[in-house]
Amino acid sequence: MINSELVLGLPGYQITGIERACGEVRVRVRHAGPAACPHCGSVRLRSKGRCDRAVRHEDWGLRHVVIELEARKFQCRDCGRGFRQRFPGIQPWQRASEAFQRQIFRLHLDGINRSLLGRREGIGAATVQRYFEAGLRRQFGQWHPPRCPSVLGIDEHFFTRKKGFATTLCDLRRHKVYDVVLGRSETALAAYFERLEGKDQVKLVCMDLSSAYRSLVRNHFPNALIVADRFHVIRLINHHFLACWRELDPAGSRNRGLLSLMRRHRHNLKPEQLARLTDYLAGQPALQRIYRFKQRLCCLLLQKHKTRRQCRPLAARFLKALHQLRESGLAQLMQLGDTLYSWRNEIALMWRFTRNNGMTEGFHNKIELISRQAFGFRNFDNYRMRVKVLCA
Ligand SMILES: [Zn+2]
C-alpha cells in the first residue's frame, strides 16, 4: 500500500489510483478514519450514500494536483442531524486543501502578484487574495503579543500621499515591529493609545525629538522613561550649525567639499582633511569658535554606558553649553538651545541607556520594501497586517 503521507503529505488516506489527465494529476483517495457526528460526537450513524469531492492540492513540480475523495453522507441516530464525512487537512466546503492554500499564501507573499498567480494555478485573483488573507490572519494570530512591550521605539514613516504618515511602534527588546498606526499627530493617535493593554509595564520609550510623541507617552505610559535618539539629536545640532554657517559665510558654505568636512565628527577626519578644514577655519575666527563648540557638544552627547554618578558632571557641562547657546545672540543657535533645553532630561538619559531607534529605522527600510513589492497599498488595514506578519 502506498503511504499517503509520503505522496500527499496527508496522513491516514488510502490511495486507490493515480492518473494523468488534461495536464493535471488526479489522485483518487479514500479516508479510512472512523466517522463521528461533528455535532454530538456520536458514532451511531446511518449511511445516506456517497458524495464525491474533488479538491485542489499542492503542485508536484509544475503539474497541478487534484485529489478525488470518496466521501460519504451520514445521518446521526442520536441527534438526528445530517452531515458529510470530514477529512484531515481539508476543511469542509473548501475546494482546496490546506496545503494548497498555504502554497498560494507563500507564493503571493514572495512577491508573485495576484493575477499572475491566479492564471498560473487556474484559480481567480480573488481566491488568491482570500487564501492570502486567511494565511496572514493565521500567522498574525500566532505572533501578535496582546500586551505592550517593556522597551518601545516610536517613529514615523511615510504611508501614502492621500493618507499621509504612519507611526511605527517597535519592540526593541524582541527585535520586532509591535504595531503600525495611521497618523502621527497627538489627536490621530490618542484613541489607539487609549485602547492599549499593559501600558504601565512600559519601562523605556525611545523616540526622535517629536513633541507630539513625547506628550502622548507622558499621558499614556505612567512608568516609562523617555530616551531621545542620539542620531536625531546630533542631526539636529548639525542642521542648526550648518544653517548658522550659511548666515556667517554664504560663499564658503556653498563648497561641497567643505560641507562634507564640516558635518562630520572631528575624530572621523583623515589628517589631510583635518588640515584643509583648519586652514579654512583660520580665516573665519567667529566660525572657528562655533565649530569648536559644536564638536565639544557632539562629543559630550556621544558618551554612553555611564553610571548615575558619572552622569552628574556631564549634566553640568551640558546645561552650561545650553546656556551659552541661548545667550549666543545668533538666531539659529538660540533656537537650537531652546529645543535642546526642552529635551534636556530625555537627552541626559542617553548617557545611561544605550537603547536607540536604529532598529525602528531599519524596519522602515523593510516596510518600504514590502510596500514596493505590493506596488503600494491603498487600504491601511491590509498594509498593517502585512507589516506585522513580515516584521515580527
Ligand atoms: Zn449527532
Write the topology of this structure.
Layout: H1 4-8, E1 13-21, E2 24-31, E3 45-60, E4 63-76, E5 82-84, H2 98-109, H3 114-121, H4 125-143, E6 151-160, E7 164-171, E8 176-182, H5 186-195, E9 204-207, H6 211-220, E10 225-228, H7 230-248, H8 256-263, H9 271-282, H10 285-301, H11 308-326, H12 331-342, H13 344-352, H14 358-373, H15 380-390
Parallel strand pairs: 2-4, 6-9, 9-10
Antiparallel strand pairs: 1-2, 3-4, 4-5, 6-7, 7-8
Helix pairs in contact: 2-4, 3-4, 4-15, 5-6, 7-10, 7-12, 11-12, 11-13
Bound molecules: zinc ion (ZN).
Zinc ion is lined by residues 37, 39-40, 42, 76, 78-79, 81.
Structure in words:
- The chain has 392 residues and is α/β, with parallel strands linked by helices.
- The chain folds into three domains: 1-95, no CATH class; 151-228 and 358-390, Ribonuclease H-like superfamily/Ribonuclease H (Nucleotidyltransferase, domain 5), CATH 3.30.420; 230-352, no CATH class.
- The chain contains 15 helices and ten strands.
- Strands 1, 2, 3, 4 and 5 form a five-stranded mixed beta sheet that branches. It has a five-stranded mixed beta sheet with strand order 8-7-6-9-10, sandwiched between helices.
- The longest helix has 19 residues, at 125-143.
- The model has no long low-confidence stretch (mean pLDDT 89).
- The site of zinc ion has 8 residues, from loops.
